[in-house]
């Protein structure tokens, strides 16, 4: 990327649409507006203008909003053209911009990357913005807002300031131990705060599992013997036909998945092949894949159409709950007692579906009363936090003051890498490639 270029791109959704937003950013923005619209509008004021080519041909009429730098999203001179969202209109305006000297089409995430390079956002805020754009549930939106608005960055910056103060005290003792105004063992006064800081970081890391559930969804696997009603339940919960349903045992040969929103959380439902011994090659592969998915589940729905069918000896993760679901209860030939299952339902009549949903909601994280969702939602955040915690532990247990100071420097660098303050060049291409072109 050449950060001296002026860039442009469609920043709104897919075409056609009622309105399309074309964003321009860079030093040649004002000149491009003048050539397109005839005059530069007042800053931060929506102005209705006729948009023309360099030859005076009318392309469209739309709103033009000019944001002089540094008071813009990217920190550079920016402009947004709000035009009619027809494909021909948008392509004509983009073609006109392509004909201006010094302008080029933006690459994926380049507007956000410029905002980062110009100090308008840090990496946590950038990643939060990417998550906000793709958020599909209320909890995903809340988690993304916490990051994109700077709430989580403020937490990390507060920790960084505590580390900086501690390092300054230790360096003062190392460099000016003979000075009368620097008392001996000044470093001793900050160790208790560093112990508390490490405990705060460890408690923060412990919330990574909850953040993963919010961001990636609670993984629920529907398992059981062949013909237990797994595919019928998946279709009933999804409210559409996802899986093929027949009376033939072994119909499902592969893992099918569907995303749902439940109580504001994202839930991923997996329909798996019926678990049994078989010599049929394709079905055996389906069972192998089913067991692989089961091994990564957050919750198991174990289905059976008969009271003695809840046989379960599959390996699952630690503390993964298994809910016994009695199916096909509309059939009179099967008699169940209340203690034989946790939920009783019939996908044919719909009875018991609401009870199952209530049971699933009870296994979702309880976030009642929480005003903040500041928690590490990405693996790189967790890795850096663990590195900072480990360095703090080594600093607390080391004997030499110079070794302690070095470990605190490493801890500070690890925190800095989360927000992008130090040593992040190798991360930038990966992070910003996740964005759409116009962002």
From TrEMBL:
Residues 217-365 form the TrmE-type G domain. It comes from the Bacteria. K(+) binds at residues 227, 246, 248, 251. InterPro entries: G_TrmE (IPR031168), GTP-bd (IPR006073), GTP-bd_TrmE_N (IPR018948), GTPase_MnmE (IPR004520), MnmE_dom2 (IPR027368), MnmE_helical (IPR025867), P-loop_NTPase (IPR027417), Small_GTP-bd (IPR005225). GO terms for biological process: tRNA methylation; tRNA wobble uridine modification. One of its GO terms (cellular component) is cytoplasm. Its EC number is 3.6.-.-. Keywords: Cytoplasm, GTP-binding, Hydrolase, Magnesium, Metal-binding, Nucleotide-binding, Potassium, tRNA processing. It is found in: Cytoplasm. Gene3D superfamilies: P-loop containing nucleotide triphosphate hydrolases, Probable tRNA modification gtpase trme, domain 1, tRNA modification GTPase MnmE domain 2. Its main location: cytoplasm. Binds 1 potassium ion per subunit. Homodimer. Heterotetramer of two MnmE and two MnmG subunits. Belongs to the TRAFAC class TrmE-Era-EngA-EngB-Septin-like GTPase superfamily. TrmE GTPase family. Exhibits a very high intrinsic GTPase hydrolysis rate. Involved in the addition of a carboxymethylaminomethyl (cmnm) group at the wobble position (U34) of certain tRNAs, forming tRNA-cmnm(5)s(2)U34. PANTHER family: TRNA MODIFICATION GTPASE GTPBP3, TRNA MODIFICATION GTPASE GTPBP3, MITOCHONDRIAL. This is tRNA modification GTPase MnmE. It comes from Sinorhizobium glycinis. The gene is mnmE.
């Amino acid at each position: 990327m050449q950060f001296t270029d002026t860039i442009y791109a469609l920043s709104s959704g897919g075409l056609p649409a009622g309105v399309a937003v074309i964003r321009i950013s860079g030093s040649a923005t004002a000149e491009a507006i003048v050539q397109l619209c005839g005059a530069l509008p007042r800053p931060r004021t929506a102005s209705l203008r006729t948009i023309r080519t360099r030859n005076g041909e009318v392309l469209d009429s739309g709103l033009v909003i000019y944001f002089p730098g540094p008071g813009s999203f990217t920190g550079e001179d920016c402009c947004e053209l709000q035009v009619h969202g027809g494909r021909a209109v948008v392509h004509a305006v983009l073609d006109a911009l392509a004909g201006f000297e010094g302008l080029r089409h933006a690459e994926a995430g380049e507007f956000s990357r410029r905002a980062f390079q110009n100090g308008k956002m840090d990496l946590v805020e950038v990643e939060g913005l990417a998550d906000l754009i793709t958020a599909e549930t209320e909890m995903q939106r809340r988690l993304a807002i916490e990051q994109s608005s700077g709430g989580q960055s403020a937490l990390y910056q507060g920790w960084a300031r505590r580390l900086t103060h501690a390092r300054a005290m230790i360096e003062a003792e190392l460099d000016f131990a003979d000075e009368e105004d620097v008392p001996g063992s000044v470093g001793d006064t900050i160790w208790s705060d560093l112990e508390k800081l490490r405990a705060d970081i460890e408690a923060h890391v412990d919330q990574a599992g909850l953040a993963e559930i919010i961001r990636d969804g609670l993984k629920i696997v529907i398992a059981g013997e062949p013909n237990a009603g797994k595919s019928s339940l998946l279709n009933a919960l999804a409210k559409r036909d996802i899986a093929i349903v027949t009376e033939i045992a072994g119909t499902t040969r592969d893992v099918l998945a569907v995303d749902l929103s439940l109580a504001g959380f994202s839930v991923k439902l997996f329909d798996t092949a019926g678990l049994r011994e078989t010599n049929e090659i394709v079905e055996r592969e389906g069972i192998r894949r089913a067991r692989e998915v089961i091994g990564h589940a957050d919750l198991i729905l174990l289905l059976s159409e008969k009271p003695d069918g809840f046989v379960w000896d599959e390996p699952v993760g630690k503390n993964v709950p298994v809910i016994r679901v009695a199916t096909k209860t509309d059939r009179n030939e099967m008699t169940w007692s209340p203690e034989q299952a946790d939920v009783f339902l019939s996908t044919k009549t719909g009875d018991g579906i609401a009870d199952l949903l209530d049971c699933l909601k009870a296994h979702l994280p309880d976030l009642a009363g929480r005003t903040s969702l500041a928690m590490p939602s990405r693996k790189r955040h967790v890795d850096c936090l663990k590195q900072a915690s480990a360095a703090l532990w080594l600093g607390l247990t080391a004997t030499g003051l110079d070794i302690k100071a070095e470990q605190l420097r490493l801890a500070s660098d690890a925190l800095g890498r989360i927000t992008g303050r130090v040593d992040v060049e190798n991360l930038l291409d990966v992070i910003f490639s996740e964005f759409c072109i116009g962002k």
